[in-house]
Amino acid sequence: MDDHDAHDVAQARAGSELAFRRLVERHARGVFQLAFRLTGSEPDADDVVQETFLKAYRELKRFEARSSFRTWVHRITVNCAYDMLRQRPRHRGESLDAGPANAPAGGIELEADGTSWPDRLAFGAEIQGRVRAALDLLTPTERTAFVLRHFEGRSLEEIGEALGLRTGATKHSIFRAVQKMRRALAPLVDPATPGKAEQELRPFQVQP
What we know:
mainly alpha; Rna Polymerase Sigma Factor, Chain: A; Arc Repressor Mutant, subunit A; 2 domains; about 0% strand
């Protein structure tokens, strides 16, 4: 564990609110980014951040230093976001423009490909809209598994542990999510000239 985290965790366990506040300030950005990727909504991500650190504060004495504080608090984030997704009405139709300014959907970043800037912006906006809409069609388990695998780079074991699934069920959830995402994004790929979308759609062409 990071030396600063180890010091602050020890002090926070001893009752120092200032030490816990330092932990929050150090990890809040990463927790928000993960929560936003999982929920696709800035207000929901804010709620997840608050719930995450509230639970972390309550359960700090149970934290085992075998893993880093970051890993532990991110695991809490996943659980809080997953619970929120399960409570959502299906297909609630959020605005496709939801999310922090200039934040690509799910962490997709556009790369220069020789296309004029207005055309590139329009194409990128269309992809972002399709990604958000497609993610909203996934079940909570599929969405969480997909984001953790293809955007967060988590192992199957980590995802299975977070969702309470065995490896086979984890793979199946990711596979179903990939198939749904590929179908939703298929209209963006021109079979004659696939290069334009190759980088943007690469996460959805990866088999679990």
